[in-house]
Amino acid sequence: MARAPARQLIGFWTLFSKEVLRFWKVGFQTIAAPVLTALLYLLIFSHVLEGRVQVHGVVYTAFLIPGLVMMQVLQNAFANSSSSLIQSKVTGSIVFVLLPPISHTAFFLAYVLAAVVRGLAVGVCVLAVTAWFAPLRVEAPGWILAFALFGGGILATLGVIAGIWAEKFDQLAAFQNFLVMPLTMLSGVFYSIHSLPPFWQGLSHYNPVFYMIDGFRYGFFGVSDVSPLVSLAVVVGCFAAVSLFTLGLLKRGWKLRH
Amino acid sequence: MAVAVSIVDVVKHFGALRALAGVSLAIEEGEFFGLLGPNGAGKTTLISCLAGLVRPDSGTLSVLGHDVVTDYREARRRLGIVPQELVFDPFFTVRETLRIQSGYFGLRRNDDWIDEILANLDLTDKADTNMRRLSGGMKRRVLVAQALVHKPPVIVLDEPTAGVDVELRQGLWHFVRRLNGEGHTIILTTHYLEEAEALCGRIALLKQGKLVALDTTANLMARHAGDSLEDVFVRVMRG
Between the CA of residue A178 and those of A206, A208, A209, what are the distances in Å? Predict the structure, then answer.
């Protein structure tokens, strides 16, 4: 029989592996579909804007690719944790995770890390498919990885909150359509915020996803709208805040243990 | 005999509804204990409190001396629960489901015991079948198997034979009796009172969140002059 810390570790690892296996088993829907969506965005926007727009001295298609990669990392990290939780709540199978001696920290880490893995898997596939369409530099891979991990972590954590909060699939869809989608679409995926009027430019600075996209893109081109250090500070700060908040909810058993 | 489950003055409200109104009882190690009552009596709420799925407003519950709130890890490790609802994870096969459940309890390389459970519940030939493709009775057996993967000394069966055919019932009770004979404490809730009468050494009757009777099955029947547990049940609930 394993010792208590080892048992905790096995419990965490099992839940994490189960979550990864869950999305892997339906990979066509969870990985291939978002890659196709990103490819369609690229084909349409680059067809319309290539040759007319340059951002930070970079051709538009090359500028667009990191934005699309990061957008899919974020949206799929959110989708993984939120859909898994609401599905298991609606079907009742969440009880299998609540009955064993899994701590709230292990629960949190397993769902968030598995969601980040899916986000990264989709991101790598989007990059592999879209990189053929434009010359892409990689100036600072460390920044790319840092923003992908912390950005994915934030959205995965928001997915945990949404998945636990929502009691019906349409509530989750509302969270996704009215919060996650606007925040990601209006974050500079398709444009530099310097091209916006001053009011919208100022407003963009209150959107944490803007810093994720901008910092991620800095890793490719070495240029960004704001300093990558500022972006990283914002992203890590947001991750710490939402993580502590979520851990507090889980410790209280919010909407899980009545 | 040591106390397997201790429940002391447990109160639980859901809004204005008082689900449990100060329930206290102790179940000894090795007992086959029946927790009976009509729908809405509080049986499942009490079991959920024991499992940590529901937090009582007041009172304490412990499993083999481990408080279910302050020492929840040790308490849950000693408890196996077969839930009432027919729930399953549609992504996995039967064997994957049992391996995953073992892992949640910190167990790796548990296949020998998993094979034994599968054989005892007549699930061996379904081990690699996806959960979605099983019949209701088969899914119920997997729920029982999931509750047993960590060899819990205390096993709670919340209406395990609801919607299950005669053959499975007999097989299930044979297996559960064997577990009880090996020292496992069994707590059973069921609406099939003849099953409770045949299996349970002691019975608690709940009504509107209160404990209205607690005694050995034989004493209950003698005291209420009933020919069967069903007679006793009807008299106590009307009283």
Answer: 16, 16, 14
